[in-house]
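Standup notes
- HV: blocked on the assembly model, inputs below
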Amino acid sequence: MKRANWQELIWVVIIVALAAFWPMMVNGYWLGIGVDMMMYIALATSWVLFSGPTHYISLASAAFFGVGGFIVGTGMSDYDASFWSMLALSALVGGVLAALIGLATLRLSGVYFVIFTLGLAEMIRNLVSWVQNNFLGSRGLYVLTDFTDTHLYWMLLATAAAVYVLGWIISRSRLGFALRIIGGDETVARHVGINTAMAKVILFTTTGIFGAIVGAIIAPRWSYIEPNQVFSPQLSFFVVIMALLGGSGRLWGPVVGVIPFLLIWNWVDANFPHQSILVLGLAFLVIVYFLPHGFVGRIEQLRAHLRSRS
Amino acid sequence: MKPSGTILSVKNVTKRFGGLVAVSNMSFDVAQHEMVGVIGPNGSGKTTMINMISGAHKPSDGRIALRGRLISDQQPQNIARAGIGRTFQLVRLLPDLTVLENVMAGAVYGHRRRWGRDAEDFAHDVLERVGMDAMSDAPISSLTYIDQKRVELARTLAGEPEVLLLDEWLAGLNPTELETGIELIHALRDEGRTVVLVEHVMDAIRSLCDRCVVMSSGAKIAEGTPEEVLSDKEVVRAYLGDDDA
């Protein structure tokens, strides 16, 4: 990921301010899509923090997201805990879980890392299901709050903005530069003095924290939570596809990937409900054949082209 | 500058890969400001020796110390920070970064941990030093082989190492490039740098090295000035076989 500049941060402030008015301008259907978009923007941007520069494709998003949703569900349903304390606990558990996964997968690279993260997410889903069925008594959990979609939208917008600003800070730091070097050649990274293990674990941990926070925030929307629903592996694939479609070389890549993808997805889902999964496959083909660096790559190409003509 | 005082010491170092002994009971010292050549036929364990000093491999036995401090139990990143820099036999650059960023990578996490403007300026200085500053914004893919080697050397120098390890830095260069390359290493020598170089180019060894360590089948078979070792019977036999000795 390239080092971000100040101009980029000003754009973020303007866009976040404008996006905050979305709930006042639209009806319930479009607000729902807005909530989905903010959720995936936050998830995909936090995914890009780690996977963008290092090229480690993680399919563990569902694990962190699920942990967040499940903690909020269990806490509020079975222990009368408040939403906010469970949100904080989710962030903590998501972070610890990601750090453990990071430490366990440090020696893996390429396809082994991909498969391991997918398998691990599935294992966590089954483990949580098993614990809930055998020890916690209830199969489903009720999350009842006073939050409306508008509140969720704003919380997710704030989370997405926080992820972005964190990414912006990292991209200008020693740590951000270290990740680009690790993505280029890990052996070189070690020999110029970078503690590669530490750098990777720190970044993967932030991905885990934000994944869990997003899962926790979205939990009240469902009212009724079941492990198979919040740990759905489809979510992990969605995050990866949207991030790659937008382009993982820039922090704003996921934003330009999530919006068109979800608009198409929703339209197909409304008109051809049984064919919607096709969109996922088609998006993947488009990335491989036409957008190897996502929309970001094309936009930058166009920019360079315009600059050279003027 | 005259060599003075041991800075790097290798003592009874052995490396086994499963049943294969790649390096066996090697010992040698490197003095400050000294240029030491590690030579020997292909497969004699020279690169493995360099890899153990830089931390890429851990010795199975024995110890390597920098200024008396044990480094052979450390990770490569700690050894780099302690002050040992290296180049690779097959050039390793970061293709997604510019020439300047590649060199900054050495300055930022190395011995002195520069950052920001300081790191940038220093990277420019080092590029200037190897004659590559005009290319500092170029993408790596546009560089010729010698230029890639120069950038890699600049990255290593940017870490301000106390000991520089050059693994066949002159290999693969054409005759004109070779001349430029030898000149560059000569300049390093004149600066008084401490260098351990693995090399096959005999002309370079004769003109550059204060001392040579000769390896064959993983073991040291001779040590001394280039003239001494290159006329040593054992060394000639290792290179050319029994009949010619």
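- HV (later): unblocked. Chain B touches chain A at residues 54-56, 75-78, 80-81, 85-86, 88, 92-97, 101, 104-106, 108-111, 115, 155, 159 (CB under 8 Å). Chain B has nine helices and ten strands.
- Next: hand off to the docking folks.
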